[in-house]
Design a protein that fits this description.
The complex is a heterotrimer.
Chain A: E1 5-10, E2 14-19, H1 20-42, H2 50-58, H3 66-100, H4 112-127, H5 134-155, H6 164-186, H7 189-200, H8 208-228, H9 232-237, H10 239-244, H11 249-271, H12 277-289, H13 293-317, H14 326-348
Antiparallel strand pairs in A: 1-2
Chain B: H1 4-21, H2 29-37, H3 44-78, H4 90-105, H5 113-133, H6 140-165, H7 171-177, H8 186-213, H9 217-222, H10 227-249, H11 255-267, H12 272-295, H13 304-328
Helix pairs in contact in B: 1-2, 1-3, 1-12, 2-3, 3-8, 3-10, 3-11, 3-12, 4-5, 4-6, 4-10, 5-6, 5-10, 8-10, 11-12, 12-13
Chain C: E1 6-13, E2 21-28, E3 33-37, H1 44-51, E4 59-64, E5 67-68, H2 74-80, E6 81-84, H3 96-102, H4 116-129, H5 144-157, E7 162-166, H6 174-189, E8 193-197, H7 201-207, E9 210-215, E10 218-223, H8 225-228, H9 231-238, E11 240-247, E12 250-258
Parallel strand pairs in C: 3-8, 3-9, 6-7, 7-8
Antiparallel strand pairs in C: 1-2, 1-4, 4-5, 9-10, 11-12
Helix pairs in contact in C: 3-5, 4-5, 5-6
Chain lengths: 349, 329, 261
Amino acid sequence: MTPGTTVLRLGRVLSLPVGRRFLIVAPLLLLALLASCWLALAAGYSGTRAADIWQAVTLPREAMEDPARMIAGFRMPRIVAAVLAGSMMAASGYLLQVVSRNGLADPGLLGLSDGASVAVLLGGALAGSAVIAPPVLAALALAGSLGAALLVVGLGRRMLTGGGIILVGLATSIFLGSIVEIILVTGSAMNFSALMQWSRGTLAAVDAADARLLGLWWLLLVPLALGLGRSMSPLLLGDAEARALGVPTRASVAAYIILAAAFAAPVVATCGPVAFIGLMASYVARSLVGDRPTEVLLAAMLSGGLILLWADTAGRTLFGPVQVSAGIMISVVGVLVFVLAARAGRLAR
Amino acid sequence: MTIAGPLLIAALLAVSVLHLASGAMPVPPGEVIAALFSYDSGNFSHVIVVKQRLTRLAVALYCGGALAVSGLLMQRVFRNGLVSPSTLGVNSGATAFVVLSVFFLGASGGALFLPALAGALLALALTFATAGLLRGQGDPRLNLVLAGSMVGVLFSSATTLVLSFDPDRFENVISWLIGDIGNFDYRELRLMAPLGAVAMAAALAVCRAIDLLALGDEQAAVMGGHVRLIAGSALGVALILSVSAVVVVGPIGFVGLILPHATRLIAGEFGRGPLLFCAGGGALAVTAADLAARTMAAPKVLNVGSVMGLAGGAAFLVLVLATARRVAR
Amino acid sequence: MEQPRITVDGVSFGYGGPPVIEALSLEARRGEFLAVLGPNGCGKSTLLKVIAGLNRPSAGRVLAGGEDVSALSRRMLARRIAVLTQAGSPPPNMSVHEMIAMGRYSHQSLLSRRSREDEAAVARAVRDMQVEELLGKRVGALSGGQLQRCRMAMVLAQGSETLLLDEPTTYLDLKHQFGILDCARRQARAGRTVIAVLHDFTQASLYADRVAMLSRGRLAGLGTPEEVLTEEMIAAVFGVRTRAARAHGAVFHVPLGAAAP
């Protein structure tokens, strides 16, 4: 048995080797996530009593008093959406990092988010003033994101297994990004700034339907990712090695990229293309639990949920009347802190 | 470069005349030339060509040349064909600091240069710090570009953040932000152009020293080159050029990325010729892009920045695919 | 007595860690070919970099023509000492002529164009290395041997009185190895000073006037090839038992096996 692992046994049916660090880290992260959710429920303009939150979480809607109903109606879906969206972006980012063997990969940098944005914006432009239902929007985003993924995989098929795919993604994202820009610019100046907000990612407009949508996708995709996870560790060794171990590298790389696109799409549709969660969460997860892919994936999803939740909560409460969108909080504060901290950590080592 | 030079000059002249001729009120090319050489202040189309369009043309020419040379210098110094003012995050950094200083200090015009330069420097430092995180994994040239695009997103988010504080105040900044050539940009150009001219002269002066760097740091040093000084001054010149362009028109991407490659293909890599060719090519590209932005979707006017982004993104893709193919072989 | 071209005077140097070179002293004179030999990691290349002013010694000093190397600007130093570094990454798109002309960098100011003197030096170097037919080619199109000859021409064009060659014959086939060494010796006979890091004892004994044997950063022996390249020295420095033979003015070493520790 490799050092630092414990085997979880469930009778004779199941025996699962698990890293000891993961056994410690994962519950702690989960605990932190629950505590953060509680704090986020309590944070807002109006003072909130613990009893209200308890009511909002436990009682059915009809039995609640007004403050609790407010919390259940507005804050709760937003928080649930933040956690789900954060974890999905983290999963998407980590899958891309495994595929490209590069720690900077992120759906926001590789064109997946931009593809979804273009589709959503085009849909919005074609629909004119009509409101598009969230599921339709999600489908549009998925189509855009998958389209971008297929484009990237197709163009970069010769360098699918090297780092080159990242550059193809980057180029695609630049190209799609300027289409987004053109669509934004051709609108009026008034909604330019609102669209800019959305194009950086925000949870301000998220409601219960969005949260439900995210939950549905989450339940669909996470088992798929965990199921595919077996071939991830050979991939990390490198192309030739993985093939020598019998992993069909090309097929699994393509599958991962498509899965990553599927993870990113509903998030873009509901919250806009929140960048960098995948990147930061994977980095945090790797430094917490080591490099067993399935464990990193789970830890990254937990950290991703935490990051987006904190970014959104801080953005809506810290700056008084101005609500700063979560995407901007993450890009500006999160990335700066992340780069500086990681740099300091590297120097200290 | 025997025939490429004259050809470029001819193309530049042709596109310039076209640029002056087209607009809301088309002026025939003959009239344009007449307006330039025998100006008649009573003739309305002469007034439009000289007072309005000529200034726009000057802005396009200057910014294209400055950004292209800036990109060329960066690619030479880092020996990396994928870097440029936009891909290293320099443009976004400068933009963010301009918006910040407009918002907090109420600065305007030429006073924006210094904050923009500070932003550019900060962005560059951050890009390298981020790329440093990945040392040892993957291709370092690729990591630099990834880090640059990350820093780019970071700074453009910061820009969005500041804009969201008070969208109304920024109404007139927005056209600048998306890299549009406005009618009044020539006022900044007047302040930046002398600086740009000095920087261009400096670039021509350090040209041979930069060629020396191509031999490798060690060989360059023992042949009499002060490697850090050369790289530092070339980078400084590159930053000044790109920041001066950003102050005038806002962040226009990809001129600095694509033109150096075109130059290498057509006019070679070493000596002063390619540098001049690159400047001319950049001027040509931005002028043509502005022309396209104005006429492509007429009567709707697109902005140069987006047109350049579209063309540049596609060209970048081709570049990446070509590079990868060469590597794979 | 004439002043030495290069004086290494009690020099120590380390890359931040333990010293790679310790209290090393030697001299090289006008018209001399000095070969530096020693096992891998003994500090040969480091010594060359110290002499070239790339590494600043932590103790002692290096004099070039009587002046402290660390007091000279890079440009002035390059006019005295030319260095052929171990093949780096030559720019594939440069033409051979452009590359050789780069050798004149230290003689030109920022704005001046190539002078007639520059042209003459380049022409001479091209003739010396017999690379006339390669001038129009791109560096990337050259074979290993051709590239090394062209790099040598570039270094010769520098016109410096001292030449430092760091393993100039590595990766070359036999003919080109001797081509480079022949040229280096011609340069020495013409009054230049050549200091070359070499691997091959036989080549060193054939071409060098004197041999400096380095072992763990210290000078293990210095003198004519006959004096230095002895069976005892090879056993002590390289840990290999050999039988030495002398023929045709060269010293041959036939390896017999690892020396007893």
